[in-house]
Amino acid sequence: MTPEGVAVIGMAGRFPGSNSLAQFWENLCAGRESIRFFEDHELTAAGTPPALLRDPLYVKAAARLADVEWFDADFFGYTPKEAAVMDPQHRIFLECTWEALEEAGYAPDQYDGAIGVYAGTAINSYLAAYAQRLGSLEGDVLATFLGNAADFLSTRVSYKLNLRGPSLTIQTACSTSLVATHLACQSLLIGECDMALAGGVSIKVTPTPGYFHQPGGIASPDGRCRPFDAKAQGTLFGDGAGVVVLKRLADALEDRDHVYAVIRGTAINNDGASKVGYTAPSVNGQAEVVAEALAMAGVEPDSISYVEAHGTGTALGDPVEVAALTQAYRGGTERKGYCALGSIKGNIGHLDAAAGVAGLIKTVMALHYRKLPPSLHFEAPNPEIDFAQSPFFVNAALRDWEAGEHPRRAGVSSFGMGGTNAHMVLEEAPASPDGLQAAGEPPYLFVLSAKTESALRALAARYARYFEIHPDVAPADAAFTSQVGRAHFGYRLALLVDSVEQVREALASFVAGREDARVAYGRTEEGAGAAPAGSSPAELARAFVAGAAVDWAALHAPGSRRRVSLPVYPFERRRHWLPDERRLAAVGTASTEGEAAKPLQDASPVRQSVEAANGEARLDLLTAYLREEALAVLGLEPGTALDTRQGFFDMGMESLAALELKSRIETGLRCSLPATFAMNYPNVESLAGFVAREILGLDLDVRPQTAAPSGTEETPDEGLDRLSEDDLAALLDRELAQVLGAEGVAPVE
């Protein structure tokens, strides 16, 4: 690790009891336990068998996330069918990555550097539940595989956000997300990427809440985790997701990013075989990784004033961890009882693959706010832990994190079953350089945008609330961040104001639907071009809402503005979950859900109807047919409004969905479409023209249209155009065989 370290410039997370980091921090400081304890009547209503309720080993508690079945599929370009088959771990992590980048003040489409993704996920329990209810995955196997396999967690983010740095999915059990963060730091320091997203997610999908306690196991018998306490009997597993945005500290300071904390040193290792069993922890292994992280950070142990421990509250794990920490610290200090110790698991349980990043985010926030939250359920020390002779004491109450001789520093540990250990040394953010803060002169141009009008109004309400809570934010910096730190969508709002107070007033007017001269609002128009150089703020506001491209960075002198934390996008989530059991029989066929597949007939009723119509009515009928087929592939109700000029890829119809559309059209019209049809005929209108002329041979004045997939400036792979249909089909068959195995995938029983 280089002396300057790696800066944490953005974060996002969802944890039990909180869907935002603001609520998360409030819960930690208040000492709230976010474990839910269920009454029998609640469990009965959820379908828990009576015999299970009477079982003394059944623990009626859970640390769950709220609304895991909800997801903004439209925002990320997924069809409802794709969203329903996707592991909720992938969905929630995808939303968190977007929120984290926005919170850092960056938009993927406005950042020139390479952004890497390093993350991991817990075992997929959604796929098991999905397969059990379907009875068979035949037909939808590849879509299900892509939506659920851990391999695709990070690359899905890179694809959807167009990130071009390394993209790795990490799996080291409970230490997964801290190991991912370590690898992200290494990648930044050797120049593989310029920014990195790191974290993890763990969500368990079970028929009923609660879990079984196994005497002598690691699961708590009463639903409570008591790290380092004499009554500690185990932990419980919970749900959560967390992401941090990382950047080389020197770059973050140069770019005037908002730095929450600095990662000074990281290390990972494995216990090897020097322990009593594969699942057991090792004093030597843990001590070595802590000592190595301290050495990489170049700091002495007596400069560390807090350690966020792995702290599972198990009979073996806690004594081993404190012994290992003490062994590592004794290499540099003989001081006793000076370093606070805590574990987030008492608040939210053990988050499996997301445990490390949860502890990391807690520690970063503690450094940022200069407070140490309490470690819950500590009354008397575990008698197997010799705190009196160690550098540590358990921090059982909220307290200010006082400054000392050194900058505030902390350690974070995460240990995986199987022996992969990770430790990090963090330090508070450096003071902002003097003389760089430019006040900026009014008027200030704030810009907001969203993919729908309702989302834009929700975003405006968030901004109004933000400026009410943060009246001292520099308006020039906030306006700058709104310009360069956000993607700009079709529904747009521009505010020309002189103060933060005017921002609140103008936003309130927009949310309430009142006219306000300071507000420009509109939906983008095609062909708006670029805003002319030298435009006034008022002209830029009008150009922006009309859809013009604006070079926002050129409006500000380099180094004159600072990125600040602003509200993130208000996702419009809808429920995407297991299919209705009454419709299960048809899933996996090439036909629409709820309708059994029909054998091919010699004649096509659709084709006969089109050919029998007169004049332009033939094209209208064909267009209507193709529109309904597209709706079926998207999982939308028949008759739903659909812009026939909207690109298939803009609708969320990725390659697999496009293949399904191809199959449906070929079945319905008894024809053969080129495999590249979605690239060469990228919407319903152009496809209708092609089918009318080239497939049905109708004498209509329509011409084939060609275009690249919407939303990208790149052209399709040129090699596809040179392949014959037979060659392309063979290529696809080979790729499918590699992914699924030569024998295919057997139905899950």
In short:
With 749 residues, this protein is an alpha+beta fold. Helix content is 36%, strand content 14%.
Written overview of the protein:
The protein is α+β, with helices and mostly antiparallel strands. Helix content is 36%, strand content 14%. Strand 12 (306-308), helix 13 and strand 13 (339-342) form a beta-alpha-beta unit. Mean pLDDT is 85; it is low at 134-139, 580-602, 702-725 and 727-749.
Unreliable residue stretches: 134-139, 580-602, 702-725, 727-749
**How is the biggest beta sheet arranged?**
11 strands, mixed
Termini distance?
50 Å
Overall mean pLDDT stands at 85
Structural class: alpha+beta
Q: What's the β-strand tally?
A: 22
| Beta-strand content estimate | 5-15%
Anisotropy-based shape: globular
List keywords for this structure.
749 residues; alpha+beta; 3-stranded antiparallel sheet
Topology:
Elements lengths: L5 E9 L6 H10 L5 E2 L2 H6 L4 H5 L3 E2 L1 E2 L7 E2 L1 H4 L3 H6 L2 H17 L10 E7 L4 H9 L6 H8 L4 H9 L5 E3 L6 H14 L5 E8 L8 E2 L27 E9 H6 L6 E10 L12 H15 L8 E3 L8 H13 L9 E4 L2 H4 L6 H15 L1 E2 L19 E3 L4 E2 L8 E7 L4 E9 L15 E7 L2 H17 L5 H10 L6 E7 L2 H13 L6 E5 L13 H10 L27 E2 L29 H8 L3 H19 L20 H15 L7 H4 L3 H12 L22 H5 L2 H16 L9
Helix pairs in contact: 6-9, 10-15, 12-13, 16-18, 20-21, 21-22, 21-24
